[in-house]
Amino acid sequence: MHICVLGQGYVGLPLAVRAAEVGHTVTGYEPDRARCEALAAGSSYVEDIGDDRLRAVLGSDTYYATSDPQDLKGFDVAVITVPTPLTDRAPDLSCVREAGRVLAEWVEPGATVVLESTTHPGTTRDVLIPLLEEGSGLVAGRDFHVGFSPERIDPGNADWRLENTPKIVAGLTEGCLERVKAFYDTVTDVTVPASGLEEAELAKVFENTYRHVNIALVNELSRMAHTLGVDVWHTLELAATKPFGFTKFLPGPGVGGHCLPIDPVYLSHHVKARHGQTFRLIELAQDINESQPDYVVRRLQDALSRRFRRSVHGARVLALGATYKPGTSDARQSPAVEVIDRLRQMGADVTVVDPYLPVAESSCREIPFATPEDGTGARVADFDAVVLLTPHAEFDLVRLAAEAAYVLDTRGVMAAAPLVERL
């Protein structure tokens, strides 16, 4: 089939490459011309797609990246994988609307359009379909097919990838569902049919709401445990020995990435705007997790005052990790960056080390987390404090514990020691 994937980011590019690998002819539509040029040159900016995989589908002429909407003509299946960010703390569907308008001109009888972008229930039916119908002059469910299939991409996860993660599929009609399922059966191992569009849309935002609420729960538990003088990390290990009715979540500096800080807000905002009801747990979880970077800064401030009788202002702080999770360069909505920014606003001299984050893509200064002989003139022992924000495997935690004057471990990955304090 001729497959068009609108948006060549962390969701769209893996889908486009996978579809090309299984034999479809794929057009990757990306309005950003610089990205298109990189893709055409065989250079992937998405970590889950290596240059070798990209070059293989380019070489076989099964994949083509373009910023020209006319290249969408004649598609059998078009999948929309554009961002759905927050603007002024409210859902922003402008990219979905723009994709719908661009695509509508090329919708032909028998074609299938699928939305993958995370959003609130009702978006496919109330936002996308009217745009497609207006621009094409056709009727959804009769002349062409429409569906929703939520993305479940976890950047950097080598175990659960696009092809082996169960894929929820939904359609406007039974016929639409059959067409949507038929496509995804070619690129994923398991498809899970949903009874309707709204159920599939709600399932996606609830998956991330579940994680968001439980992370907020353990973040607040860690604060209470610290006040009580109880080791929260050992407490969680003990609780996790229960073989039923418990799922282990861990505290941290906050939540980040493309999903958790954003997706639950889509649900709570939609319920309040449309029905005047408050999703109290989501709003409470949002308050807790958004305040977690401030809590990390307060803990570091207290430690500097208690241990060294000095303030954050003027202190030399080494921040390890700036991305939102280990093993990836993704710093979107990263709580680590928020911690770093707050420390600098308070007058701390913060040096950031993140092997996955180039200086050009951040406001962070970098030095190698290396030995005194590396020529940089900076050593771990030269800093008043170290705050471990993202535990990349490249960090030598044993040497860190041996050389640092003080470490605040926000991820609980280091053994407790006199100079190491866990959040």
Task: Using the CA coordinates, give the radius of gyration.
Answer: 24 Å
User: pLDDT average, as an integer?
Assistant: 91
**Low-confidence blocks of residues:** 359-377
Largest beta-sheet details: 8 strands, mixed
Task: Assign an overall shape.
Answer: elongated
Distance between the termini: 52 Å
- Portion in beta strands: 5-15%
Secondary-structure-based class equals alpha/beta
Helix percent reads 25-40%
What is the count of DSSP helices, taking H or I runs of 4+ residues? 12
Give the total of beta strands. Answer: 15
What topology emerges from the helices and strands here?
Elements: E1 2-6, H1 12-21, E2 25-29, H2 33-40, H3 51-59, E3 63-66, E4 77-80, E5 86-87, E6 90-91, H4 94-104, E7 112-115, H5 123-136, E8 145-148, E9 167-171, H6 174-184, E10 191-193, H7 197-228, H8 232-239, H9 263-275, H10 280-308, E11 316-320, H11 335-345, E12 349-353, E13 385-388, H12 397-403, E14 407-409, E15 420-422
Parallel strand pairs: 1-2, 1-4, 2-3, 4-7, 7-8, 9-10, 11-12, 11-13, 13-14, 14-15
Antiparallel strand pairs: 5-6, 8-9
